[in-house]
Amino acid sequence: MIRQLLRPVVALLGGALLLSGCAGADAAADKPPAHRVFSQKLNAQPIRALEVSKAAGTVSFRQVVTFGSSQGAVRLTSNGQLDFPRQRASFVRTWGFDGRYPVSQRESFAGDALGADHAAASQAVVMDRQLVHVRPVVAGYWLKYDRATIVQDGGQSIMDLRGKTAPYGETLLESVPGIESVTSKPTPGGGRAYTTRLDGQLLHRVVPHLTLALADLLDEQSLGARAAFTLVVDRTGRIVRVDADLTPLLTHKPGALSKVHSVRVALELSQYGAAYTPRPGLKGRILDAGQVVKGLHEVKPGSCVASDTGQGYWTQLVVVPCGWPHQGRIYAQREWSGTYPGEKELDRESIQACDDAYARVPSGWTAGSREPGKFWTHWPSEHAWRTDKRRKTTCYVLTR
């Protein structure tokens, strides 16, 4: 009797264990897999989202830097594509000004040029690990820069366009690795938005490369300031938007930019994983920047020059055939010696030297002037006179 009673009990226990095991397996199967970003610790999620975004290979981007001022808004818009694995990027940068913004002050943003109204409005850039190609939209040629091309004039090199986080280093993606502490909230569609405040020390390493104007608006006084920073991630864990309000970093200096009261940057990312297609492509003439980009004091009289080298410094010029589009023509130079005479005296003597030369040089050198009889001069600063030994006054006419 005992044996007969035990058998059903054992059978029942075995069945119960079997049912229990099946129920556990079903529960494990129903448990969703860990999210590749949102399952991380909160403060690690922005960095993980950056990694996931880069793993997609390519992405299209649109970034707008908006300068608010009492004279109207100024916007720098960059549209293009990034290729993370192959460290390539292509994009077009365009400046936009409210209609009431003074023409004479626009070069403070877009970069100095030959004449107050010649600041470059737009330029295309195609870059990879070794080369940076720049094409002013109004020109019919590309300028090719490599690491051996040293054509900077007291500022950043064109090669500084490269980034550490992304192939193109002038987007807000460069700031993401500096995020340490965030708060988050869900967004429609299953994503998340992260907010933080980044310190000026970090942004100083990134922001000044966005535009020369920003470099002028920031200084060491803003190192201790903190800027609002928001990063939005979609439900797949990829970054789709980054915003930064840089207004707290502004230092109100006198000058053309003194009326700027706010700076905000908005970056949008889309079309992850699409085929990399440089727009515009590298078509047409390609000039070696090392051969054609010269310092103003190096350009020989009679040469025709274009002012957009992609660097924003008008004292660096592109020497082009006079049959090509150009903005100016150098018609004379005057070499100085001795001690620095002072700005007013050097100004007076430079104007006199250019006035005298205007009547003596070949007529073809000034005939193309858009304002016959009018010339422009550039003379060395005291710093250049004493340190760089650049003691030339250059005389030129505007030709467009």
Strand order of the largest sheet: 7-8-9-10-11-1-2-3-4-5-6-12
User: What is the H/E order?
Assistant: HHEEEHEEEEEHHEEEEHEEEEHHEHE
Bin the helical content: 10-25%
Strand content: 25-35%
CATH architecture of the largest domain: Clam
SS element count, helices: 9
Count the strands? 18
What is the CATH C-level name of the largest domain?
A: Mainly Beta
Question: What can you tell me about this protein's structure?
Answer:
- The chain is α+β, with helices and mostly antiparallel strands and 400 residues long.
- The protein has two domains: 42-270, Clam (outer membrane lipoprotein receptor (LolB), chain A), CATH 2.50.20.20; 291-398, no CATH class.
- Helices cover 22% and strands 30% of the residues.
- The protein is built from nine helices and 18 strands.
- It has helices spanning 2-30, 45-55, 107-110, 200-204, 212-217, 289-292, 343-360, 364-367, 382-388, and strands at 58-69, 74-83, 88-97, 122-127, 132-136, 141-145, 183-187, 191-199, 226-233, 239-245, 260-270, 285-288, 293-295, 304-306, 316-320, 328-335, 376-378, 392-398.
- The strands form two sheets. Strands 7-8-9-10-11-1-2-3-4-5-6-12 form a twelve-stranded mixed β-sheet.
- The model is unreliable at 1-23 (pLDDT under 50).
